Amino acid sequence: MTSTDKWSLSGAGPETYEQYQVPSTFEPLAHMLLERVGLSAGQRVLDVACGTGIVARLAAQQLGADGQVVGVDFNQAMLDVAQKIPASGGPPMDWRQGDAGALPCADGAFEVVLCQQGLQFFPDKLGALREARRVLAANGRAWFVVWRSAEHSPLNRAISESVHRHLGVEAEKISLAPFSLGDGDALRRLFADAGFRDVEIEAARIIRKLLPPEVSIPALLTSLPIGPQIAALDEAVRLAMVAEVSEALAGYRTEEGLSLPQGTHFVTGKK
Ligand SMILES: C[S@@+](CC[C@H](N)C(=O)[O-])C[C@H]1O[C@@H](n2cnc3c(N)ncnc32)[C@H](O)[C@@H]1O
């Protein structure tokens, strides 16, 4: 494989997200989330900022045909990918385009509201949590998963440093957006301010298993929101970024590739 092939392999956008980010990160994280939630057959579940739908699909498998799963995302292109993936059991999937700040759902419609790695991107976080609470039934529970700060993620620290070096501060800021709500106390306060009771927060970590860096890092870089900017750089610069990130992660190499810890919070509250 030539270096150019490696770059064209990654492309950009929702398909790349589903192909690279979901199996290495968002699917294992969704399993950790659902272990904590403990869904019961027949429950009605909303997945806010569902993306390409991994949480909603895994939840559906636990609910049986009498359950209900709705997935809402702002980005229709993510939902288009979600729609193409065949369901494997459970109720039919109901994908809705909409904003977390004005959910296209009735008051009290769900026993459980889930949101995996979405809250940090919402412009009005408190408003979105109030919306999540509005659509919950009495005593229903919301569960949100939010990355801890980048200091708990060697991969993203290495990527953001390289982005800073080659694309500047603004691009670095965008690359760090997923880690911008890393403070557990702030997260707990947001939940309480939105009116949730019995708020609990847990700091945990996932281990991301990636292919060797020369394969996984180009794909990851171009699947970021700043992927198009990176893809537009000269090939020599892109390869320098891959080399820098790979070197920074040398301590995490395994026989298969890379094994990287990444810190996250699970936060839950009751209506
Ligand atoms: C990192 S992805 C997580 C997707 C999915 N929850 C998962 O675990 O794979 C973040 C998602 O948040 C969505 N998003 C961002 N702002 C939103 C908003 N205001 N309302 C609804 N969805 C939003 C994006 O479109 C994207 O699909």
Task: Name the descriptors.
271 residues; alpha/beta; Rossmann fold; 11 helices; 45% helix; disordered N terminus; binds S-adenosylmethionine
Task: Describe it.
This protein has 271 residues and is an alpha/beta fold. It has one domain: Vaccinia Virus protein VP39 (Rossmann fold). The chain has helices at residues 3-10, 14-37, 54-63, 76-84, 125-134, 154-167, 169-176, 184-193, 213-222, 227-231, 235-248, and strands spanning 44-48, 68-73, 93-97, 110-116, 136-147, 197-210, 258-270. α6 (154-167) packs antiparallel against α11 (235-248) and α9 crosses α11 (235-248). The longest helix is centred in the N-terminal third of the chain and has 24 residues, at 14-37. It starts with a helix and ends with a strand. Residues 1-11 have low confidence and may be disordered. S-adenosylmethionine binds at residues 22, 26, 49-51, 54-55, 73-75, 78, 99-101, 116-118, 121-122. Residues 22, 26, 49-51, 54-55, 73-75, 78, 99-101, 116-118, 121-122 line the site of S-adenosylmethionine.
